[in-house]
Amino acid sequence: MFFKVLLNLTIAALVLYIVVKFLSMLFDQVTFWVTSLEEKKRRYLLGGFGIFLIALPWLTAGNPYLLRTILIVGIYIILALSLNLIIGFAGQLSIGHAAFYAIGAYTTALLTVSLGLNFWLAFILSFVVAGLFGFLLGVPILRLKGDYLAIATIGFGEIVRLALINGGDITRGPAGIPGIPSPSIFGFVFNDNISWYYFIYLMVVITVIISYNLLNSRLGRGLIAIRDDEIAAEAMGVKPSYLKILVFTLGAALAGIAGSIFASYIHYVNPDSYTYLESVTMLMMVVLGGIGSIPGVIVGAAILAILPEMLRTVELYRFAIYGLLLIIMMIARPEGMISMTSLRGGKKPSWQFLKLGKLLKPSED
Amino acid sequence: MFGEQLVNGLALGSIYALTAIGFTMVYGIIRLINFAHGDIFMIGAFFALSSVTLFNAPLIVAFLVGMAGASIVGILLSRLAYKPLFDAPRINLFLAAIGAAILFENFAMLVWGPQTNTFPVLIDMHNYSILGLKFTTLQVIILVCTIIFMILLHLLVNKTKVGIAMRCTAQDMNTARLMGINTDRMVYVTFAIGSSLGAAAGILVGMYYQAVYPMMGFMTGLKAFVAAVLGGIGSIPGAMLGGLVLGISESLGAAYISSGFRDGIAFIILILILLIKPSGILGKVTQEKV
Amino acid sequence: MAILEARKVTKAFGGLKAVSNVDLIVEEGQIVSLIGPNGAGKTTFFNLITGIYDVTEGSITFMGKPLKGYKPYDITKLGIARTFQNIRLFSSMTVLDNVKVGQYCRTKTGIWGALAKLPIARFEEKEVEKKCMEKLEFLGMDKYADEIAVNLPYGDQRKVEIARALATEPKLLLLDEPAAGMNSTEKENMMKIIRQISDSGYTVFLIEHDMKMVMKISDKVAVLDHGEKIAEGLPEEIQRNERVIAAYLGQQGREANA
User: Fold this and answer.
1) Is residue B54 part of a domain?
2) Is the Cβ–Cβ distance between A300 and A289 less than 8 Å?
3) Structural domain for C105, as ranges
4) Rounded distance, CA C94 to CA C97, Å?
5) What is the pLDDT of residue C249?
6) Is B290 in Cβ contact with C13 (below 8 Å)?
7) Residues C7 and C124 reside in one and the same domain
């Protein structure tokens, strides 16, 4: 067994290495193509993509399974983008993001099931409560640097999960809370995947716009400045503690929204959905796509949310493969598939990797 | 009750201390919080368990197998996953360590299954009374083993040529290289020692709770990290001290405050120490040069 | 009028005094230079003024306000901007964005304004862009606005740093070795820029190793050695000062002979 698993993982590592290298080239090519398009053509492309998004549920008609996967992808895009605000924009490594996802989900569950509140009120309160927790956590721990911060956030994620399990009658322990109602608006109930699709992807679009607006504002520049060089940023008049807490709170609040959506979509919350591995999955989406790169993070979220569906046959190996992928990404492509630099365009990518000499000596990259 | 918890805390603390040393040594040499260290601790325990269940190995052999196996894993890890990243930003190295941790946990699940395996009882259990405190045989073994390993490590680091070379590399890798020290080899030696001590701790934990399971390294690893930070990361005596303080406060906290949040105590200590004295009890304060 | 006043300023790292008992006054509108051998404590002194390090003893006042307890960003907002000896541009940003960061403390858009891109935020953004382009034009760097700043040649990076510092709308500009690593034409050019900056109403306080440059542009020169101020005065006085020659010029003379 030991050697069989070892062999399988070695093969997986080699395959992953080649896949990562190949995808890097592919994404470089696509990014280069898109960034070198004229402004007008790019607008057409974006418009075409918008129409595709609107038409998507009808294109998948008759395949509820596919549409369901697309919904889950949407929720993960919101999560990954919210984490990207923290990791990508502010440069603060957080590996406890599932905690805010959980807080949002449980807020909605408790308010709608235990208190019988309207979903939309619970939805907004999930945003507020998750943000509040983000703020309360952020104030003490954002003074920490890099890996220390990462471990403190892992600790926070575990504390939240323990609190949910040990929460007694309130959180109902490991069994969780069932019976969360579907949202409705003006008498129209979200009880099919198509209405959920439009709701979720509306939130995705809002999250994308928020991310771009933040990035291109004075606050966004302040954040990137902190990420690039905190001391220089301070010397230029940027107050790091304020901006870090602000963006941590915002990221947490958006994760809370994703939690609220997820809880009411599956009508159920339990602590198992919000583990450390869930946080790692979100982290992987950001890293795979390209830390700080909004299109990259969307692609990363899509790939990693769809991948498990495709890996059903090797389901057992899923997280082992994630682990391998994280290491291989760091060695072969640390900047992610669609990196922030590649988005600026300019450099023409090459297919060098396909030349045999390079393939034989991959360690020289 | 107090005495019982104190002894329990001492035993637990010794285990944290042994694990924390691996963290602190690796941090000292490549400035990496080796997140996978806790999982090497688990792999070591599984190696020992397999050698007992498959080959009926006696305890001492099981220890050697576990420690040797773990140090090989540690060396491979540093060579394959970390070495290519020595010059990369530190955060990339840390993410690779997270990846390695996930890989090890799931590797163990694939090989040994996700369930909890019982570690067979290999020793006769007695109770001893020392200074009015009651110890079980196992607790005595844990304390004695820890003390022996600490003494050996102290001699190795302070009295041998390899130890001096290791300390040089930890202080300044470039200068050490210029002085003719094979720094890469020192990194591997560090990983080997840290991993084998971690494995010893893993086996002791396996015996103490009679349980070995793939996720056992996750929580213990985090706690050992807390212990290392508490004592002052990079400092070996600090790791010992931090481990003991953490073990005792956890035992007492679980007994007198709440056992449900036993695992939460470590993180509260972590956040407190990082806010009050981030350099730890025995750590050095450093200021970034501008 | 004194814009910056340091009184008996001492900075100790453990037992080592990097700056010891330094008195110094910078008059408004002047160009003041701080010179001294390597390791004399010049950059440490800058770090004390800008709040990166805390003063161990003594006091620094800026326009009559004691700076004790102020953080670097507060000090920048009060009106002191700086450049760094080992250039610290934001590596992922374009030249223009680097300079725009300088405007951060002079703008107000809050989180909701930024997220929703409210009209007021758009207006402010336009103003920022205009002001920053002006600074770049002033330094002759406007044609590189969209380049990644760290990809520029060394001399140009220094100019971007100066533009970024000017974008914080300072009253006092600290330049840490603005001409380091430049050839003589570039140095001439940098000198012209510093004069222009001074002529447009900024007070300039700089650290520099190039004696020719220091003597030409300074209204006043102060000399540090082993953390202590050993001389202060007009450039001509400093050139004749025995202690300075022994501590600093002598060393340069030896280098020149070698």
Assistant:
1) yes
2) yes
3) 89-154
4) 5
5) 56
6) no
7) no
Taking CA–CA distances from C88, the nearest residue in chain B reads B290
Q: Provide, rounded to the nearest whole percent, the portion of chain A with pLDDT above 90.
A: 62
Cα separation, A252 vs A258, whole angstroms: 10
Which residues 6+ apart lie within 8 Å of B21 measured at CB?
Answer: B153, B194, B197, B228, B236, B239, B240
Q: Is residue C162 part of a domain?
A: no
Please check whether residue C22 lies inside any domain of the structure. Answer: yes
Tokens of A191: 């009880």
Tell me how far apart the alpha carbons of residues A102 and A256 are, in angstroms, rounded to a whole number: 7
**A237:C73 CB<8 A:** yes
Residue C122 lies in a domain: yes
Question: Domain boundaries in chain A?
Answer: 65-320
Residue A328: pLDDT band by 50, 70, 90 thresholds? Answer: very high
End-to-end CA gap in chain B: 53
Low-confidence ranges of chain B (pLDDT < 70): 260, 284-290
Identify the architecture of domain A65-320 in CATH: Orthogonal Bundle (1.10)
Q: Of A3-7, A239-243, B275-279, C239-243, give the lowest mean pLDDT range.
A: B275-279
- Closest to B149 (Cα-Cα) out of B202, B197, B195: B197
Q: Does B115 contact chain C (CB < 8 Å)?
A: no
Question: What phi-psi label fits residue B119: left (phi over 0), alpha (psi between -120 and 50 degrees) or beta?
Answer: beta
Query: Residue A198 is which amino acid?
Result: Y
B168 contacts B29 by C-beta, under 8 angstroms: no
Nearest-Cα distance to chain B for C84, in Å, is 8
Cα B285 off chain centre by: 24
Residue C114 near residue A223, CB atoms below 8 Å: no
> Domain tally for chain C?
2
Write down which chains contact chain B via at least 3 CB pairs under 8 A: A, C
Residues composing chain C: 258
In B, minimum Cα distance to A7 occurs at B107
